[in-house]
Amino acid sequence: MSKLKKIFIIIILLTVAPLLKGCMPHTVGSTEVGVKVNKFSILGKKGVEDNSFGPGTYFFFPIINDWYLFDTRIQNLEMTIDRESGDIRARDDLLFKTIDGNDISLDVIISYRIDFTKAPDILRDIAINNEQLKINIVRIIARSKPRDIFGELKTEDFYVSGKRAEKSQKALDKLNEMLNPYGVIVESVLTKDYRFNAAYQKAIEDKKVADQRAEKNKSETKATKEEYIRRLYDAEGEVNKMVAKVDGEFMQAKIGADAYYEKQKMLAQAIESEGIAEAKSIKKMNEALTSSGGITLVKLKIAEALKGKKIIVLPVTQGGLDIKSTDVNKLIDTMGVKSLSSER
Predict the structure, then answer these.
(1) What are 67's strand-pairing partners?
(2) What is the rounded distance in angstroms from the CA atom of residue 327 to the CA atom of residue 333?
(3) Do 80 and 183 reside in the same domain of the chain?
(4) Does the residue 191 lie in any domain?
(5) pTM for this model (two decimals)
(6) Statement to judge: residues 100 and 153 lie in one domain
(7) How is the chain split among helix, strand and coil, in percent rounded to 5?
(8) Is 60 among the domain residues?
(9) What's the pLDDT score for residue 250?
């Protein structure tokens, strides 16, 4: 720095030094941001300073500086049909058409705040306070873009909260895209009430009533169907129970019959075996009786049977007695009578 310039600065300081006692304090609250404007500057840049002043107290000479404050709290832009509330005391809801051509009005609340770091830009290019910022920028864009976005919905889509929420998010993203360069950060876009024209509103209400009746009838039909199904299941259960009982009785009878059959089979086999054995015995006896010893045994048995009995034999031939043709002696001899007579 040249010697001449230093002298010039010293002269200036000496000139303004007595006035420095008049510096004014400027306090910035916890939810505020301060912006300083240099109206006159010897060493610095004239105009809005690029630095934002956070909470605290600052001293500036009032004649050569201006001071501005912005509120950084959440601000609400409420656009509703209610003339007693909202951002302005008049009808302020959004009027537009749905994509299928019906007129609709929608109440919207947009919450936003100032970007602390961009407060100097706001002062330099847009507004000197929050109210001016709302009127000049926020309100104009917030009333325009959401109309386009919510107008993408069909009329009946407004009854679906999920679809309204989807468009609210899209509106939030689009507003931030447009307002962030101006130092405004949008926190939320909320929808409240919505209204159609009277005739269409009546048609919608009638349809809702008809839909409710239809749903009621569907519910009653479903309940009746479920009751029939329950009864069918009960009947099937009863039938299955009866079938199981009959099957059990059948199996018991079958087991009993099988047991009886096996018993009779074994009995028949025993009888068969006994008969075979007896037949074999008779056969052996017949074989024994046909032998010479068997004949003698037969004769002996006959004699034993006739023992003690009086026998008169009268041969009969050609309708009368035939004494000639009967060999009585031989018969007696054969029957063993002869020997018995001798013993007597």
Answers:
(1) 36
(2) 10
(3) yes
(4) yes
(5) 0.54
(6) yes
(7) 60, 20, 25
(8) yes
(9) 81
Question: pLDDT tens digits for 295-338?
Answer: 677 677 777 777 777 666 555 555 555 555 555 556 556 665 55
Residue whose token pair is 């009960």: 234
The total number of structural domains that make up the chain: 4
Q: Are residues 55 and 84 in the same domain?
A: no
Strands of the chain (E only): list them.
24-28, 32-38, 47-48, 56-60, 65-71, 75-79, 94-97, 103-114, 184-196, 316-317, 320-321
Are 146 and 250 members of one domain?
Answer: no
Report pLDDT digits (tens) over 54-89.
Answer: 999 998 877 888 899 999 999 999 999 988 887 788
Domain span at residue 316 reads 292-343
Residues in Cβ contact with 45 at an 8 Å cutoff, skipping those fewer than 6 apart: 38
How far lies 329's CA from each of 320, 336, 339, in Å?
A: 20, 10, 12
Beta-strand pair 65-71/56-60:
unpaired
DSSP state letter for 197? -
Segments of the chain scoring below 50 in pLDDT: 14, 17-22, 344
Tokens of 216: 């009621």
Retrieve residue 83's tokens: 């003339």
